Amino acid sequence: MKWHLGYVLAITIMSGGSLSAQTVTSQPPRFHGFVVVNGGYQLASNDFADGATRRQYAEDGRIDTSYKVKAGPALDIAGGAHVWKQLGVSVGVSRFSTSTPATLTGTVPHPFFFNRLRSVSGSVSGLKREELAVHVQGRGILQLSQRFEVMVFGGPSFFQVKQAVVADFTISESYPYDDATFQSATTSEPKASRIGFNAGGDVAFFFSRQVGVGATAQYAGTTVEVAAAGGSKRELKVGGGKVGFGLRLRF
After folding, report:
1. Where would a tag sit more exposed on the chain, N or C end, judged by fewer CB atoms within 10 A?
2. Of the candidates 82, 122, 137, 109, which has an alpha carbon nearest to the alpha carbon of residue 250?
3. CATH assignment of 31-250?
4. pTM attached to this predicted model
């Protein structure tokens, strides 16, 4: 009887040890660091307009410009590490650049007569917007299995923006000066910086322990103030919604 009890006890201990080992080995491995590289697309179209008084021939005219800020491709890179359980931190950098064609309308005083403003209009090309952002993020990291991983993240973002704007324009005119024609625009490229925020999520699939691919959806944005025509100030929306797809590394 004692022999049977000992045999059963030994089998139970061995079975329990085997189950415990299986439970431990079935857990996804822990990784300390990660890198995210995305080719993305910024979805926002942050159009804007500005205007100012323009003085010529001892009388005030006007300059108004509307800008089309197109959505377009962007690049995002982030790296970070686990700090405690399922929490991590990361720092990311994103860059976005797009053309911003503009339409200009204005009024020009007459050189001989007061209150006889002449209208001009034209298109301005070659203007660009460049956005560079640094994102500091807290991350919640959920490793569903050895191959699937989900992250949610958010935090402050530091934006630096350069936006080409129309500062003034030139006209062509001839006697008797009843009409004026837009000839060219003078442009400037003011820069501005400001802190905003970012938030989003990422889903990744790993082909091996360290290498995989993933998709990200996020929002990162703020508003900045730049110098515009006539020395005025103009608030611009920067950033916006973005989607991306690319490489995932963990180690």
Report:
1. N
2. 82
3. 2.40.160.20
4. 0.82
